[in-house]
Specification:
The protein is an alpha/beta fold and about 290 residues long. Strand 2, helix 2 and strand 3 form a beta-alpha-beta unit. Helix 7 packs across helix 12 and helix 8 packs across helix 9. The protein has twelve helices and eight strands. It has an eight-stranded mixed β-sheet, with helices on both faces. The structure holds NADPH dihydro-nicotinamide-adenine-dinucleotide phosphate and (2S)-3,4-dihydro-2H-pyrrole-2-carboxylic acid. (2S)-3,4-dihydro-2H-pyrrole-2-carboxylic acid (A1CAB) binds next to helix 7.
Length: about 290
């Protein structure tokens, strides 16, 4: 991080934010940011397909350009923006950075939410000195309950990083992490919602196997997972303490937990997340080789 020579950074309220490539992840962040009260007139988005642009326009009342039928759409959206959030797939991020580079104000902060793409890769696609910030968000951003892990690049000032953090705070908890931890963060909180949904699916299937109808089993599982999450957030108890409070000695829960331990569920989770982090490192290498 570097010191700002002068205070040319706008307020979070006034900052013009462009979301370039607004699919599952960027839409989640955008939804959280707007729900936090940011003026829709300060937010612009791009997608590839015109029908997707219509959908976002209807849902959020923002300006949306479709790059599929307008080659200049992404550059036009980036022009005049204070914060530009790149949300295309990792393999397309560097090309997208190059596509918009010429349209950016020198002070515009380029944020990449792509897994496995380093600040240095984005910086190399930009004019020298362009501020860049790498972020690993997650989809609960959509309901302002995301976790967004921020790693500032080489040329971004503290004030610019604070602006990015202030905008993203509308979508959830913003934490700062050293960039070398981003693959681990991606494996834990970036992918984490999928693990929780997977567990919810498994609990639902287990309910069906025990004779419940699927609709009821699904409702029980979903309410239980979301209720447990809210409880975890609302109390000072950690997860292990809350688990113990459910587990009566010689009761029913004890049997389930003992089975999970015996059959290695913790090891499976450790192995799965290690593979997720390893995949991020492999994608970085693939992108460097391409
Ligand atoms: N999904 C997640 O939970 C998380 C994703 N990420 C990262 O977010 C990034 C996006 O992932 P995700 O949202 O899942 O992917 P999606 O496929 O849902 O979103 C990609 C979006 O990019 C748009 N797009 C593609 N090409 C262009 C183009 N040339 N111009 C403008 N828009 C374009 C697509 O438009 P269209 O819809 O019209 O095709 C689509 O809306 C990835 O880099 C991923 O690593 C990070 C953390 C979590
Ligand atoms: O699956 C992926 O690659 C992205 C990054 C983290 C969550 N989704």
């Amino acid at each position: 991080m570097t010191e700002s020579p002068c205070s040319s950074v706008p307020s979070v309220h006034a900052a013009r934010v462009a979301f370039i490539g607004t699919g599952s992840m960027n839409e989640s962040i955008l939804a959280g940011v707007l729900a936090s009260g940011k003026d829709p007139g300060t937010v612009i988005a791009t997608v590839r397909r015109p029908e997707r642009a219509d959908e976002l326009r209807d849902r959020y009342g923002i300006t949306v350009y479709a790059a599929g039928d307008d080659d200049a759409a992404n550059a036009r959206a980036a022009e005049g923006a204070d914060v530009v959030v790149l949300g295309v797939k990792p393999v397309g991020i560097e090309d997208m950075a190059r596509e918009i580079a010429g349209a950016l104000a020198p002070t515009a902060v380029v944020v990449s939410v792509a897994a496995a793409v380093t600040n240095a890769m984005i910086e190399a696609a930009m004019p020298a000195g362009q501020p860049v910030v790498r972020v690993m968000p997650n989809t609960p951003s959509r309901v302002q309950r995301g976790v967004l892990a921020v790693s500032p690049g080489a040329s971004v000032t503290d004030e610019q990083t604070a602006l990015v953090g202030g905008v993203l705070a509308g979508s959830g908890l913003v934490v700062t992490v050293p960039e070398e931890q981003q693959d681990a963060v991606s494996a834990i909180s970036g992918s984490g919602p999928a693990y929780v949904f997977y567990l919810t699916e498994a609990i639902t299937d287990a309910g069906v196997a025990l004779g419940l109808d699927r609709a009821l089993a699904g409702r029980l599982a979903e309410e239980t997972v979301s209720g447990a999450g809210e409880l975890m957030r609302a109390t000072d108890d950690d997860a292990a303490t809350l688990r113990r409070k459910v587990t009566s000695p010689n009761g029913t829960t004890e049997q389930a937990i003992a089975t999970f331990d015996r059959e290695g569920l913790r090891d499976i989770v450790a192995h799965g997340t290690a593979n997720a982090a390893a995949r991020a490192a492999a994608i970085t290498q693939e992108l460097r080789g391409s």
